[in-house]
């Protein structure tokens, strides 16, 4: 099992989606995962943020973030 720290410093949906997606994949494979939001990434800590903004690949932050919250993956700001 490996330890992963994913950092998110951008406020756009594309960056957030990839960060949350990779964190979910690593966690679901049994790895230890932490996420750290900094700079504009802290905007994703807002519980009222729209998580349904689609990326170019058709997915969105809301496809992955609920899993991370449910599994209590640590998210630091």
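Q: What amino acid sequence fits the structure above?
A:
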């Amino acid at each position: 099992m490996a330890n992963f720290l994913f950092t998110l410093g951008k406020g756009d949906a594309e960056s957030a989606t990839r960060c949350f997606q990779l964190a979910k994949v690593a966690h679901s494979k049994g790895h230890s995962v932490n996420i750290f939001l900094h700079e504009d990434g802290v905007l994703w800590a807002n519980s009222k943020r729209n998580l349904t903004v689609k990326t170019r690949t058709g997915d969105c932050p809301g496809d992955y973030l609920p899993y991370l919250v449910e599994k209590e993956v640590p998210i630091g700001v």
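Q: And what stands out in the fold?
A: The chain has a mean pLDDT of 97.
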